[in-house]
Amino acid sequence: MKVFSDIRKNTYFDSVALMIISRELKEMPGISEALAGMATELNKELLTNLGLMSPEIDALGANDFFVSVKADSEGSFDAVNKKLAELLQNKVKDEAGDYRPPGLAAAVRHLPKANIAIVSLPGRHAAAEVEKALDENLHVMLFSDNVSLSDEVRLKKKAHEKGLFMMGPDCGTAIINGVALCFANVVRRGRIGVVGASGTGIQELTTLIDKLGGGISHALGTGGRDLKAEVGGIMMLDAIDVLSRDANTDVLVIISKPPAKEIAAKMFDKLQNVKKKTVVHFLGGSAQHNGYAGYSGKSLEDTARKAVLLEAGKEPKEDFTGFTAPLDEIERLAAGEAGKLRAGQKYLRGLYSGGTLAYEALLELKAEGIDCYSNIPLTAEYKLQDSFASKQNTVIDFGEDEFTVGKPHPMIDASSRQEAILKEAGDPEVAIILLDIVTGYGASGNIVGEMIDAVKKARVKLTAENRHIAFIGFICGTEGDKQGLSKSEAALRENGVVVLPSNAQAARFAYKLLAAKKGGGKNE
């Protein structure tokens, strides 16, 4: 293999689009590695790590474009350049007619009635743009991560003083007046308002509400650090105020990891004066509080079920902690999968694109006595020293920074998880691979097909070795999503994946399977 490269000075293309294009180029015949991008310092570092750097690219500036590949021949590189031209031309056509303002002030002049700005920039640059947006009296959805805590506090205080809402940092999901922003799903309108600290937590909750026949008025994200003592829950408290006054919201749902004690006290004090029905779910903590007269969710699914009942004017009378299907059917299915496993297969590997979904899976498994190593562990003793090296029972969040530097989020690009599926399938001690698949806006249009491709490749390897692994998954999505819920679930089942209706049920089924395995599997 030889390195070939081409450069175009003063030529700009969107970084996310180039990441996806790079992946397509890498999959071409005769190509072992490929990267197309702008010549930023980060991309130069990636080129060096991939063995694709050249002196010509090293001399470029951040406004210059490059493509560099490892190819088996000049002919293969010529094919890459031809494909690249086609992909870039299609990108230009897709954006034909789009107005690209030189800055925020020009954008405000172009859209004077706009009242919200979505900021997605490298963290070190994001705070300055948020400040400009607030100065323009715009609400802000801050998608960027790696924003300093001091900047977050300062900007949220400023937004609060101006009567504006600032969602984020690291806010990936919102639904406002039925309009989905960033990573979200097609859900029916209704009278349930949601405030959540995280993105995939909101997605799982809102899609489950949709599946259960309920509807969403608004879903507001605060960012994961909002409920820390240093931030003070500024946006959570403001969101409760906004939704408590909203004429289209009858039920208020709050989801997050457990807040700081003083912030929880402030939140529940505020909820005592809210006249709407409320459900609160703290993942891994209790929402019971003196004076709180609302409901406490036991999982995202239980929270969704209670909210839908309240929206319909009914009282939730019990917690949902089991399965939608009859228990004997679940146990038969678990026993059937367990019976295909060998004696040495005893571990679970969870490969997640959603951080909150991974965390909920850890909690569900912990409740059944299964401790898992993770890059987002429940306790420090189960922190993986190397996120790329699973051991024993492991659950990985592939949305964490170590997996996304220079690459799209795993909801956009499944390649990191595809590689992980093949790697984990090669471990003779692995019995279960547990997966989430998030569909909807922002997600790859073929995310289901991409995951199925990896499962198929793993099955080929397993068949050759006369082994079986139980693939367990669920889809965080709706029928209205472009990927289609029923169609996607059917495709997974056709390829041997055990599909459950929710993340919590998928994790519970994984436990049932491990328990059945202990009761006797192949060669035991």
How would you describe what is shown here?
With 524 residues, this protein is of the alpha/beta class. The chain has helices spanning 15-26, 41-50, 55-58, 74-94, 104-110, 123-135, 149-161, 199-211, 234-245, 261-271, 300-311, 327-338, 355-367, 401-404, 415-425, 447-464, 485-494, 503-518, and strands spanning 2-8, 31-38, 65-71, 116-119, 139-142, 166-167, 173-176, 179-182, 189-196, 216-221, 251-256, 277-282, 295-296, 347-352, 373-374, 394-397, 430-438, 470-476, 498-500. The strands form four sheets. A seven-stranded mixed β-sheet has the order 8-7-10-9-11-12-13, sandwiched between helices. Strands 15-16-14-17-18-19 form a six-stranded parallel β-sheet, with helices on both faces. Helix 6 (123-135) packs parallel to helix 7. It is globular, with a radius of gyration of 24 Å. The mean pLDDT is 92.
